């Protein structure tokens, strides 16, 4: 009796080709059609109905926070320059000042509490707000001026009084582009959410949602749909 040749592990576990698995000598190609993305866009012109207060993080404040995380020794505290602080929180561009578009998405999502049939969890996913150029910033039109607010900083009984410099727009306007899912949300619901958010939530500092104040309120001055591309 002849000796039987033993197969090596590589021969035992050799992968079969597609043709061998299909039982034919040809590799079959499947055609997959990708459906278009369902989306609608609308542009809204926003008009402020109460003053807007902004207080973004300055480059210096961000740098100091990063230094703290990196365990870098903090230099001696410098004397405050109110004018420099005020200028550092404004980002002037042609036509106005840059501010975050996410303001209005957060306000609209929060306004879902005031409407039936629009869960907040779904609105976070189905609504996006951009500037007219599709970026994450909007252009606020208006003439800002400096204001000074008294605040208390620190913890517990160690809080001390301090002055915070902020920028205020007494009269302001802006335009936003809202992208939404047309199957889950209608154009009327988007407009209602935006109008409700401007009446009860507001944007910026000292708005009703955060401090119960009346700053940062707005209304829809004009709306126009944009043909979706997808």
What is the residue-averaged pLDDT?
83
Helix/sheet category: alpha+beta
Question: What fold name goes in the CATH topology slot of the domain at 40-56 and 90-226?
Answer: Alpha-Beta Plaits
What composes the largest sheet? 8 strands, antiparallel
For this entry, what is the oligomeric state of its chains?
single chain
What string, H for helix and E for strand, traces the elements in order? HHEEHHEEHHEEEHHE
Return the CATH class of the domain at 40-56 and 90-226.
Answer: Alpha Beta
Q: What fraction of residues sit in β-strands? A: 25-35%
CA-based shape: extended
What is the end-to-end distance? 71 Å
Number of helices: 8
Helix content: 25-40%
Strands, total number: 8
What would CATH call the architecture of the domain at 40-56 and 90-226? 2-Layer Sandwich
Radius of gyration: 28 Å
Regions with pLDDT < 50 over 5+ consecutive residues? none
Describe the overall structure.
The protein is of the alpha+beta class and 230 residues long. It has a domain at 40-56 and 90-226: Alpha-Beta Plaits (2-Layer Sandwich). 27% of the residues lie in helices and 30% in strands. Strands 1, 2, 3, 4, 5, 6, 7 and 8 form an eight-stranded antiparallel beta sheet that branches. β6 (137-153) and β7 form a beta hairpin. α5 (102-110) crosses α7 (187-200). The longest helix is centred in the C-terminal third of the chain and has 14 residues, at 187-200. The radius of gyration is 28 Å and the shape is extended. The model has no long low-confidence stretch (mean pLDDT 83).
């Amino acid at each position: 009796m002849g000796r039987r040749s033993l197969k090596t592990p590589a021969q035992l576990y050799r992968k079969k080709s597609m043709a061998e698995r299909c039982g034919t000598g040809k590799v079959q190609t499947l055609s997959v059609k990708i459906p278009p993305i369902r989306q609608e866009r609308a542009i809204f012109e926003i008009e402020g109905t109460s003053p807007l207060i902004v207080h973004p993080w300055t480059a210096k404040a961000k740098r100091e926070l990063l230094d703290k995380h990196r365990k870098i020794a903090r230099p001696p505290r410098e004397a405050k320059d109110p004018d420099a602080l005020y200028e550092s929180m404004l980002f002037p561009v042609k036509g106005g000042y840059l501010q975050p578009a996410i303001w209005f998405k957060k306000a609209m999502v929060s306004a879902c509490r005031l409407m039936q049939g629009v869960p907040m969890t779904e609105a976070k996913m189905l609504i996006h707000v951009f500037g007219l150029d599709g970026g994450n910033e909007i252009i606020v039109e208006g003439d800002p001026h400096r204001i000074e607010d008294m605040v208390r900083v620190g913890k517990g009984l160690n809080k001390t009084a301090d002055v915070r410099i902020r920028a205020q727009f007494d009269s302001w306007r802006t335009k936003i582009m809202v992208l939404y899912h047309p199957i889950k949300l209608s154009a009327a619901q988007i407009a209602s959410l935006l109008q409700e958010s401007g009446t009860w939530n507001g944007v910026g500092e000292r708005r009703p949602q955060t401090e119960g104040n009346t700053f940062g309120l707005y209304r829809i001055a004009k709306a126009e749909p944009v043909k979706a591309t997808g």
